[in-house]
Amino acid sequence: SNSHCGKTMLYFTLVSGVLLFLLGFIVGMGVLPVVIDDMIKKALIVSPDGPCFSESDGGMCPGSVQSHYYLWNITNPHEYLEGSQAPELQEVGPFVYNSYEKVYNASFSTNKTMVNYDYTYFWDYSAQDSCEACQDLDSMTIYTVNSAYLTALNQAGGSETSLIMAFLPQVFGGLYDGLKYVVSAVAPNATTEEEIDQLVFAQWANCSVLSNSASTLPAYQENDPYVPEVGAWVNANLDNATFSSGVSAQVAAKLFGRQTAVDASDPFPDPLSFIGAAMMLPEAAFSMMSGLPTEQVAMLKGYFYYVINTYGKMVLTAVVGPPLGDASTGVVIKRTAKELLEGWQDPLMAAFMPGLNISYNLGFHTDLIDAIDDQMASGTLDFSHPYVFNKEAMTGQYKPSEIGELIAFEDLREIQHGNGTSRVHGRSMEPATGFRFYNFREEYNFTMFHEGIQRPITFLRDEKTSTVRKIDALHFKLDPNDMVSCATNATQCVYADSIDGAWNISTVYMTESSGTFPQWSGEGGDPAQGPHLTFNPEHRREWGVDIEPRMGVALKITMPFQYNYFVAPTDVLHQTIWKPNGTSAPDGAWIPNFYYDLQSEISAKDAIKLREGLFILKVITLTLLCGLPLGGIIMVVFSTYKLFFSLDTIEKEKLLKEKLQTRASTVKVNRESMKMAKHDLEKGIKKDPLNRHQYSFTQMTKIPKSSLH
Q1: Cβ distance 634 to 21 under 8 Å?
Q2: CA 575 to CA 327: how far, in whole Å?
Q3: CA-CA distances (angstroms) from residue 85 to 144, 523, 534, 549?
Q4: Which residues contact 663 (CB under 8 A, 6 or more apart)?
Q5: What letter would DSSP give residue 215?
Q6: Among 83, 38, 34, which Cα is nearest to 589's?
Q7: How far is 361 from 467, CA to CA, in rounded Å?
């Protein structure tokens, strides 16, 4: 009975081992990968309940990104402006800032496949991570190229003369105030406001109110600068016998901004458009469009040139301030490191865009979170602001490989560039929807949309793997073809990057500018051809992304980016600024402004969590793929051995065989005996078992006792 139960248990163990072996492979290779993949997919997909978008997060993305800023300080600014020396540039930094992204106005599509959202960055300064000399930003003075001034200059047409034209409405506003003061003194007491205006227009056009120029009056001369009437200019420059210009009161009202009503069909409804068109268009064309006689157009153009070159220049000089003054603007400015990094108001830009702070560190200080929240909620602040951005991206709900794929940036689905337009595409590169790489074990390249240069860039998988905080990762580096310019390879050119080894970002920053790797200089090493750069070579880093392929996590992102501006002599205030020597040299030089070293790396705490997760995942996988099948194999081997190959089993089989043989022999003898007995019965004879006697039972009445012996 015990032997029978033991055998049954062994057979059960054998069958269980086979099933366990099959179960391990089926679950380990079939079920487990699907379950794990689904868990990873859910963690990576952008959803209303996920990071940055959930109510519990309040729009604030978890974690932070650390950026190292380096400023290029011009150590010889006076010599550079005077044109006697090429700029000497010294690298200063790093200034380390932690930035935090916050999402606003997120809207998911009905099927959750797309999301549209605004976002901005908040930052704070990390003094402990910055350079030793970078602790007191207010006391550190930097001389640098002023991108704000160059942008304003470019937007005005590329010359300071054109820039002055933008101030002419302000100049004519001052002229109106001065003339109104003068004519009011001679006008009757009951003169109305409208009548005062007519007197101002008449005095400006023909000097008819005073019969002479108001500039002869001491009270008017107190205005600084003061501008003569057009009639006085005619008398002084064209015909000293008359003060009559022939300009109508309607033209005067337009120049002074005193129109009571604006004609919808008027091509030049305001002072600036009227002055600009008169200066730039051919006289015949402007005459036809404005309705003014050609000779009057020529006269007005001469008058405008006079105002620009005298009083307009004085106004611009006053706005710009003294060269390299503490609050001055211009091509080169003097500012503290704190102002450059965290925001300053440029006097020139303030004239066009009051209240706008210029900052290298795009975003807002963390102290302003509540204020920005209120402005975003009320709609007074939106992505039209330079520091607020808008994106529409795929969530990966139905196709995880599309997680973070951009559809639109700044409400644009196509980006304008030198050769036309291209579709907005590539993975997002900010925390809300970016840096998520689903199932990347077999990927060899990917495209990312870079917000700074506003174009897609490609990363290629490196042959060598990398290790980030003891976690194995795949390393992807920038595709060299993305730095190819049209001049060197027109067949691969998508954007009109006319500078080798640099991205042309002029359309993005509205002035002639380029984005490069740090320490780039467009003119090479010849001191006569370019600026001298002094930098720490250890700071140079190539672009790269390190990805843990199983969980799809970006462990490290390195994207150093330098801003360079093309600086050349200007036509009014900066005529002597240095430019490279040589007849074939360009009119100016590329001057580095600043660069930031974006280093986003997984924190030590998160790295520990990720390593633990990967370890648990590995243990579970190995248990199912190896542990269960191995346990099954052991059970099969043990039960098979115990059933068929152990010494005990062999001995038992031998004894059993002998018993069976003995039993078989006994059965055979018995069978033979039975056959003989049957045969004897048939003959009526009973043989003596010892074969000694033979009896006849039919003839005997009693069996002898001695017959048993």
Answers
A1: no
A2: 21
A3: 15, 15, 16, 52
A4: none
A5: G
A6: 83
A7: 30
Rounded distance, CA 472 to CA 610, Å?
Answer: 11
- Cβ burial, residue 394 (10 Å; 0-12/13-18/19+): buried
d(C-alpha 359, C-alpha 162), whole Å: 26
Q: Measure the N-to-C terminal CA separation of the chain; round to a whole number of Å.
A: 43
Mean predicted lDDT score pLDDT of the chain:
81
Flag whether pLDDT at 3 surpasses 60.
no
Strands 420-423 and 414-417: antiparallel
Rounded Cα gap, residues 596 and 70, in angstroms: 6
User: If we measure between CA atoms, which residue out of 197, 191, 299, 205 comes closest to residue 246?
Assistant: 205
pTM: 0.77
What's the average model confidence in pLDDT over 610-639?
A: 72
Cα gap 351→3, rounded to integer Å: 104
Cis (ω within 30 of 0) for the bond into 94?
Answer: yes
Contact 529/582 with Cβ under 8 angstroms?
Answer: yes
Q: How confident is the model at residue 309, as a pLDDT? A: 85
Task: Report the 3 state secondary structure along 342-393.
Answer: HCECCHHHHHHCCCCCECCCCCEEHHHHHHHHHHHHHCCCCCCCCCEEEEEE
Instruction: Tell me the pLDDT tens digit for each residue of 5-43.
Output: 666 776 666 667 677 666 666 666 666 667 777 788 888
Beta strand pairing call for 364-365 and 332-336? unpaired
Q: Which candidate, 92, 123, 97, 129, places its Cα nearest to that of 592? A: 92
Burial classification of residue 129, based on how many CB atoms lie within 10 Å of its CB (0-12 exposed, 13-18 middle, 19 or more buried): middle
**Whole-angstrom Cα distance, residue 297 to residue 304?**
10
How many CB atoms neighbour CB 333 within 10 A? Answer: 29
Q: Which of 390, 432, 429 is nearest to 412 (CA)?
A: 390
Q: What single-letter amino acid sits at 452?
A: G
Q: What are phi and psi of 532, to 5 degrees?
A: -90, 130
C-alpha distances (whole Å) from 580 to each of 93, 225, 228, 321, 565 are 28, 37, 41, 27, 15
* 530: amino acid identity, one letter: G
- pLDDT per position as a tens digit, 421-478: 778 899 998 889 988 888 888 888 999 998 888 888 899 999 888 898 899 999 999 8
Q: Dihedral through CA 20, CA 26, CA 29, CA 35, nearest 10?
A: -110
